[in-house]
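Notebook entry, structure prediction.
Reason for the run: the old model in the group folder had no record of what sequence produced it. Starting over properly, with the input documented here first.
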Amino acid sequence: MENKKAHKLIDKILANLETSGINNDTLITDLKELRAFALEEQIPLVVKVLRLTYEHIEVNDTFLIPIPDDDPIEDEDGGVIDNKDDSVNPVESLMYLVALLKDLKNKMNVMDLGEYRNALLA
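New structure, fully documented this time:
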């Protein structure tokens, strides 16, 4: 996102998550405010991900979506090493999602946001 106020809000959300975890009232308000910036900048993927995120938190009182998987790691014989961690750290995953919003010119960030969108819709 390009807006400096949006970047400050992203930093605020990340700081709040780091210090106090998922505080639903403040977090949902901040995510809705951040979504307004995405609407202004006309970034449909971010608008949708933010809406789905705060709706998910409202329903579940936490964030149950894991960080998207990295590409599979191959061993020396060409076999795939299972690098998937099935545990979900709600704060870590949500911090990762919010941090992705800082650089939407990075294609990997956009791809991960798409994976979050798909997981939230599932």
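Summary: The two ends are 26 Å apart (CA to CA).
The old model has been moved to the deprecated folder.
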